C-alpha cells in the first residue's frame, strides 16, 4: 500500500513578498543563512586557534565574492555557454533588456562546482594578501562548507529546482510547478548528505586539529564530490545536452575534485613539506 507520504504536493511560492520589481525569495534567505551560520562556526574555530575576528571578516568578504562570482560564471560557462557567449553582460548583471526595457532577473543560474572553484581562487588571493598559510585556512573553512551547501540545497527545494527522477518510493514529492509526477526530493538527499559530512569533519577537527596539512581538505573533496557524483543518478539532467551523456556535467566536474582529494589524503610527508 502506498504511504501517505507519497501524496505530498509541493507548490510553495518561492517569492516571500514583492515590492515593485524586487522580490525576496526563500532561496536568498537560505543563501544568507549559509553565510551567517558559517561565520559563527568559523569564529569559534578562529578563537580556538588564536586568530582575530578582523582576519575572519576579511576572509568572509573574499569567500562571499568568490562564491557568488564563481557559481555564476560556472553556470554560464558549464551549462549555458551557447546562450551567454552571445549575452556576456548577463553573466554579471542581475537584469536583461526585454523589448527595450530593463527586466530584473537576479542571478537565477548558479553552479556549485563553479562556486567551489571561486572559493579556492578567493582563498589563494586571501592567503597571499594576509600571509596566511593556504592549507591552514582551507582545512578550517571546508569544515563549514558542507553545512552552507545544505542551506543552498534547501533553497533549491523551495524553488522546485534541481528535481529528482520519477519514483514510486513512499517519500516521493510532487513538485506541482514542474508536473504532477512523484519525484525523488534530490535536493533534500543532497542536503542530508552535506549535513552528515559536516558532522564528520567537525568531529575530526575537534578530536585532532593538528592533522597533516591538506588532510581534512582531501577528506572533504572525496566525500562531498563523491556524494554529489552518486546523487546525480537520482536527478533530472539540468540541460538538454546532458541527455546523450553517460555521466552528466555535474558528475564529470566532480571527478577532478575527487582525484585532488585522494592526492591530498595519500601524499607523502616530503611533498607536504614542499
TrEMBL record:
InterPro entries referenced in this protein's UniProt entry, alphabetically: Lgt
Pathway: Protein modification; lipoprotein biosynthesis (diacylglyceryl transfer)
Molecular function terms, GO-annotated: phosphatidylglycerol-prolipoprotein diacylglyceryl transferase activity
Annotated EC: 2.5.1.145
Bilayer topology annotation: Multi-pass membrane protein
Compartments, record wording: Cell membrane
Sequence positions that bind a 1,2-diacyl-sn-glycero-3-phospho-(1'-sn-glycerol): 153
Stored Pfam families: LGT
Primary location: membrane
Keyword Transmembrane: yes
Keywords: Cell membrane, Membrane, Transferase, Transmembrane, Transmembrane helix
Transmembrane segments: 26-47, 59-85, 105-126, 138-158, 186-203, 215-234, 249-266
Family: Belongs to the Lgt family.
Listed HAMAP family: Lgt
Role, per record: Catalyzes the transfer of the diacylglyceryl group from phosphatidylglycerol to the sulfhydryl group of the N-terminal cysteine of a prolipoprotein, the first step in the formation of mature lipoproteins.
The name this protein goes by in its record: Phosphatidylglycerol--prolipoprotein diacylglyceryl transferase
Organism: Sphingobacterium suaedae
Lineage summary: Bacteria, Pseudomonadati, Bacteroidota, Sphingobacteriia, Sphingobacteriales
Gene (name only): lgt
